[in-house]
UniProtKB/TrEMBL annotation:
Keywords: FAD, Flavoprotein, Glycerol metabolism, Oxidoreductase. GO terms for molecular function: glycerol-3-phosphate dehydrogenase (quinone) activity. Residues 234-312 form the Alpha-glycerophosphate oxidase C-terminal domain. SUPFAM superfamilies: FAD/NAD(P)-binding domain. This is C-terminal domain of alpha-glycerophosphate oxidase. GO terms for biological process: glycerol metabolic process; glycerol-3-phosphate catabolic process. It comes from the Bacteria.
Length: 324
């Protein structure tokens, strides 16, 4: 999505932490170098999710944590479709086991209130792992155990605080637009990924109205994201599934240097070409960007250290978040 916006003139800056908002100004700090800058704009939108309340005292959130675990697909009979298990005592709520890549299945997700700071890299805790295993095991003949878990990850939903409920599953998933009385910045919170276009439309409409901006015709109603389209024939199926039409660009790295076609580690199909694509085309500036966010291969605990070293060799210009 960010690449699609950038192709049409948007400026995209990563690792830029917004430290303060003033009317028409945002102060940011580069989290890797510590450098500080000020950006100016006629209208400011705070769309920082579970960090929204750090930039506006008038935003009250009740973050919810959603965790997933990864297990070998063979332990579930190599499913080709999702397995669904109802959560006892919660009508309409389910845990899903969904085929992932490289012979794994993703099982999720939890939905529990989160208290305290939001970590940069969130993982399931023991209680969440137990909940997911217990729920999915109810529909499995061959039960899973914690020994089957090879990795996992978690995320946070920016739910709007309500005095009427302590159960995060009961809090509204609807989004809300809030104007800060001090800065005038618009904060958008709540909602969910499947409604992101409606959320963006409401935010842009509000910015145009309040800021007295001139609006042109919407250009994104039928705009496909980068990678959409019919790929060139003969491209590897795995790359097409991940990159769409951009698979041709990934393959070109291997055409120029056949060593880039080699897997970065035995047992993992990730290639040097994909690492270079993440750096050159997907704004990856740290090793964690490549293994955790662009390719997602770092989510398997046993593979993470080897991947870290391999990516460092293939892209020596990358830094690490631990140095930032």
């Amino acid at each position: 999505m960010a690449r699609t916006a950038a192709e049409r003139g948007a400026g995209v800056i990563t690792y830029a932490e917004a430290t303060d908002i003033e009317p028409t100004r945002v102060h940011i700090r580069d989290r890797l170098t510590g450098d500080e800058h000020t950006l100016r704009a006629r209208q400011i939108v705070n769309a920082t999710g579970v960090w929204s309340d750090t930039l506006s005292d008038e935003v009250e959130l009740a973050p919810s944590k959603g965790s997933h675990i990864l297990v070998p697909a063979a332990r579930l009979g190599d499913p080709q479709a999702a397995i669904t298990a109802p959560v006892p005592g919660h009508f309409g709520r389910y845990v899903f086991a969904v085929p992932w890549h490289n012979g794994l299945v993703m099982i999720g997700l939890t939905d529990d209130p989160h208290h305290g700071p939001i970590p940069d890299r969130a993982l399931p805790d023991e209680g969440e792992e137990a909940f997911l295993l217990d729920t999915i095991n109810a529909v499995l003949e061959d039960k899973l155990t914690t020994d089957d878990i090879v990795g996992g990850y978690a995320g946070f939903r920016p739910l709007i605080k309500s005095s009427d409920s302590t159960d995060s599953a009961d809090l509204s998933r609807r989004h809300a637009l809030l104007r800060d009385s001090r800065t005038g910045a618009l904060t958008i919170v709540g909602g969910k990924l499947t409604a992101y276009r409606r959320m963006a439309e409401d935010a842009v409409d509000d910015v145009i109205r309040v800021g007295g901006l001139r609006a042109g015709a919407c250009r994104t109603t039928e705009l496909g994201l980068v990678g959409k389209g019919t790929p060139a024939p003969g491209l590897p199926d795995r790359l097409v599934a991940v990159y769409g039409t951009d698979a041709a660009t990934v393959v070109a790295y291997g055409d120029a240097d056949p060593s880039f076609n080699e897997p970065v580690r035995e047992g993992i199909p990730l290639t040097g070409a994909e690492v270079r694509f993440a750096v050159d085309h997907e704004l990856a500036v740290t090793i964690e960007d490549v293994i955790d966010r662009r390719t997602r291969w770092g989510l398997v605990d046993a593979d993470r250290a080897d991947l870290y070293d391999a990516v460092a060799r293939l892209a020596p210009e990358l830094t690490t978040e631990s140095r930032g």
